[in-house]
Amino acid sequence: MKYRRLGKTDLKVSVVGIGTWQFGGDWGKDFTQQEVDGILSHAKGLGINLIDTAECYGPHHMSEKFIGDFLSRDNREDWVLASKFGHQWHDNWENAWSVDQVQIQLEESLKALQTDYIDLYQFHSGPDEVFNNDALWTMLDKQVQAGKIRNLGISIGANDNIYQTAKATEVNAKAIQVVYNRIDQVPEEEVFPSCIEQDLGVLARVPLASGYLSGKYRPGASFSDNVRKNHKQQEIDEKLKLVEEIKQNEVPEGVSMAEWALAWCLQHPAVTCVIPGCKSIEQVEMNAKAALLDLGNSLHRSAWKD
Which CATH number describes the domain made up of 3-216+254-303? Predict the structure, then answer.
């Protein structure tokens, strides 16, 4: 495993992390605690130390509770734990952006995660008008001073949101989370240069393009999970046709499509870590291999900054 400093924080994070949206059940599989334990234990054995979750990954903090149960039997200090705020899923899924609501979310997340602090607490894909609430950031700074939050971050909803990215340092945020993958390279235009200028860490989410870059699907495939079932068939086929072209022209022989796709993201000098979701120990194993894959004379060859 390789490690990189997360922006201006004192955190050294593995270049491959664990995204945990799937633990909430939206990706077509319901998890047991035993399965989550197996995934996280194996990840730790491979040197992965970053877990990314959120308050709304499953109802009633489901993903966070799975992680918290695991952490209660593991060494919390071995992990960099990232979560998010701004939404809630109790009886219904809804936005929750007021100062009081976010304070409640933080306490609920700490309880679910069975921890006294969150290493990176991220503004979760909110609109600019909510982002501009000074009272919210003042409250969060007080939580940083109290030790419940180690660092603040911003998970931008649109991957071209330069407004929130450019103001990150102003609100004491030290990392940006953004959609970035071989199919969707929009952050390279404005977001990444701003991150480099401000020395912000970057967590690249959806690095496998919601599974399109996993190498498992061919044109004509359809999906039944809650996330992809509404994708139009024409859009699915176009993306999978592009993936076929990428596989033929860019992926070295003997290297899996998914492993290559994660390593491709890591070649950009702005990217600190990729956070793919995984449903099995086998996927964790494959994801971790991306940390050591050398893409040779790729576009982002200068990115490795160990």
Answer: 3.20.20.100
Q: Where are the domains of the chain?
A: 3-216+254-303
- Cα 219 from chain centroid? 27
For the record, the structure tokens of 67 come out as: 């992680």
DSSP string, the chain: --EEE-TTSS-EEESB-EE-GGGGTTTS----HHHHHHHHHHHHHTT--EEE--TTSSGGGHHHHHHHHHHTTS-GGG-EEEEEESEEESSSEEE--SHHHHHHHHHHHHHHHT-S-BSEEEEES--HHHHT-HHHHHHHHHHHHHTSBS-EEEE-SSTT-HHHHHTTGGGTEEEEEEE--SS--GGGTTHHHHHHHHT-EEEEESTTTTTGGGS---TT----STTTTTS-HHHHHHHHHHHHHHHHHTSPTTS-HHHHHHHHHHTSTT--EE--B-SSHHHHHHHHHGGG---SS-TTGGG---
**Neighbour count for residue 110 (Cβ, 10 Å):** 19
Span 247-306, pLDDT tens digits: 889 999 889 999 999 999 999 999 999 999 888 999 999 999 999 998 765 444 333 333
Task: Show Cβ contacts of residue 149 under 8 Å, excluding neighbours closer than 6 positions.
Answer: 106, 117, 118, 121, 140, 143
Give this prediction's pTM: 0.91
